[in-house]
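Friendly challenge for the regulars: who can give me the C-alpha cells for this chain first? No prize, just bragging rights.
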Amino acid sequence: MINFSDLTFIFRFLPVFVIAFYLTPTKFKTWTLLVGSLVFYGVGDIRMLPVLLGAVVVNYLFSRAIRGATKKKLLLAFIVVIDALMLVEFKILGQMVDNSLMPLGISFFVFKMISFQADTYMEKITEDPPFADVAAYFCMFPQILSGPIMRFSDYDDNDLIGKDAYKPELKTILSNIEDGLKFFVLGLFMKVMIADHLSMLWNDIGTIGYESLSTPLAWIGAVTYSMQLYYDFWGYSLMAAGIGVMIGFPFVVNFDQPYRAKSVSDFYRRWHATLGSWFKDYIYIPMGGSKVKAPRIIFNLLVVWLITGFWHGITLNFILWGLILFVIIVSEKFIVFKLLPKWLGFIVGKLHVFVLIPLTWVIFAIPKMGMMEDYFCRLFPFFGEGIAVNGSDYIKKLGLYGGFLLLGLILLIPGVYGLFEKNRKKPVVTIILFVIFWICVYSLSNSAGNPFMYLRF
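First reply, four minutes later:
Bragging rights claimed.
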C-alpha cells in the first residue's frame, strides 16, 4: 500500500504527479488528477478499484437524475440508502470476516458521495458538473484514504481545473508547491517523529499486559494514545491539505487546536472538523438540530453519536465510545453550562477535555471488554483488581519515550502551530523544515513504516 509517509510516495509518485499535473494542458488537468488518483488507489487496493469506480458512476448518474427529476426527494433518499448500505455491508465484511474485504477509504468517499447528492438536491451545486470533475472529486488521492471530507464547492474553488480554469504563471506554480510542501513536511514530522514513536510506547504497554501496569504508567498510556492518534491524524490531514495546496486547492482545516476547547462538544467541533461539519449539516440539522425541544435535541444527539461510533467500527467499544460522548455532551449542554456558575462550568469543561477525553480514547483503542476493564482497574486501582508487576515501570518508559511525549505536549500549545502558520514563508522556517524533512526521511529509511491509524476506518 502507498501512503503519504512512504518513501516511494514522497520521492516517486508525488513529484511525478505534480510535474505531470502542471505540464498537462489546462482543459485536461482534471483528467490528470482523476487518472493519478485511480493509479494511487489501484496500487493500494487493486481488487477494490471496481467497487470505487462502480460507486462513482452510479452516484454521477443519480446526481444528474436528481437535478432533472420532479420527485427529487425520492431519488435522493434512494441513492443515500444505497450508499449507506454499501458502507454498512463492507464495514461488516471487513470487521467480521476479513479486513481486506473493506475497500480503502470507503468511510470517506461514501460520505463525499452522500454530501454531493444532498447538495445537488438542495441546489447548492448550481451547474451540472461534467463527469471528470465529479469523479475526480470523489477519487482525489490526497483525500480518498482518510479525508478530509471536502465539499464539492471547495473542489470547485480550484482555479486550475474545470471550465473556468486558467494557465498559471510559473511564479504561482512555484508558490503553490512551496506552500503545500511546508504543510506536508510539518505533517510528516508529526506522523514520523511523534505519532510513530508514541505508538511504540503504546505497544510496549500492551506487551506488559494491562492488568500488570502501574497506575502512573496506565495514565501515561492514556495520554500517549491520545497524542498518538492526534498527531497521526493531524499529521495526515496537514499532508493531505498540503498536497491539495500544491495543485491549487484551498487549504482544508481538519484540526483547529482541539485541546484548547472549552468542552467536549467544542473539542469535536475542532477535532476532525470536516467530519463533525458533515454530521451537523447532513444529519443533525435535517433532524431539527437544536431548534427543537429538549427531548428531541437529546434524541438528535443520540442518533449522531451512535452513527459516529458505528462509522468508526462495528465492535462494541466504538459504540460504547459514541454513547459515552453523547452522555458527556448532553450533560454539558443541559447541566454544566446551564445550571453551574460560569466560572465553574469553565473548569468542568476543561476537566472534561483534559481528563475525560483521554479516558474515552482508551475505550476507543481497546476492542475487548475484558482488556478494557483491566486497563480501567489500573487507572483507578481502588477497585482492587490486578497488580503492578513493577511499580516503577513508568520510570523506564519515560526515560525511553519522555522526549517524544514532551514534544507532543509542546505542540499541543495553540500558539506553537500559530507561529508556524504566521511565519511559514520566512527563510528561517524554510531552513528548519528542510532539516526536519531529512530527519524524517532518515527515520523512515530505518523503519518498516507505520500506516496511518485512520486507514482502518
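The first helix runs from residue 7 to 23. The chain has a mean pLDDT of 90. Your move, everyone else.
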